[in-house]
Design brief:
The chain is built from one helix and ten strands. It is globular. The protein is about 5% helix and about 35% strand. Strands 1-8-4-3-2-10-9-6 form an eight-stranded mixed beta sheet. The chain is mainly β.
Length: about 180
């Protein structure tokens, strides 16, 4: 099982602050997305936690191809397989283009790549300075928000989705 910690430095998440181990208060789950694969089988969870220095996304996914995968917040809280097109495009309230490396700014939904180990499992923690209440309010708006894992890695620059390939897992955030 491969575990990774990713410090986010994209979109409005710029300026993520590393938090020393043991320095955070006990985090509380604020929202959760239960992930499914394109065939409807369980794929894991993504939880939004309230961390001391901002929000924390905790990813635990299984059944993925080993290697890096693009991961994005999508604008509609729907995950109808097999293509998950019902999730719409990336969460992008400010009308930016895609990718951390894009000089015109990135989507709010642009997240760092995560990596599945040889066993197909992704365990990652993504810390952001975005206040937990603000993030949860954004994710749980009137039409909801989905988190989508893609078949390949995001190149962080190609509009609209970073050449990250097919949508292979999806989950809709719900309040916890």
């Amino acid at each position: 099982m491969k575990q990774s910690t990713v410090i986010v430095g994209v979109a409005c998440l710029v300026g993520a602050i590393p938090v020393p181990a043991g320095a955070e208060r006990e985090p509380r789950v604020l929202a959760e997305a239960v992930l499914v694969h394109a065939d409807g089988s369980p794929a894991g969870t993504v939880r939004v936690l309230n961390g001391q220095a901002g929000s924390v996304l905790q990813v635990d996914a299984t059944g993925m191809a080993p290697g890096p995968h693009g991961m994005h917040l999508h604008e509609i809280g729907q995950c109808e397989g097999p293509a998950f097109a019902s999730a719409g495009g990336h969460l992008n309230p400010d009308g930016h283009q895609h990718g951390e490396l894009n000089p015109l700014g990135s989507h709010l939904g642009d997240l760092p790549n995560v990596t599945a180990g040889p066993d197909g499992r992704i365990k990652a923690t993504i810390r952001t300075p975005m206040r937990p209440y603000k993030l949860v309010t954004t994710l749980l708006d009137a039409d909801g928000t989905a988190l989508v894992l893609h078949a390949g890695p995001d190149d962080y620059k190609t509009d609209p989705a970073g050449n990250s390939g097919a949508r292979v897992a999806c989950g809709v955030f719900e309040r916890r």
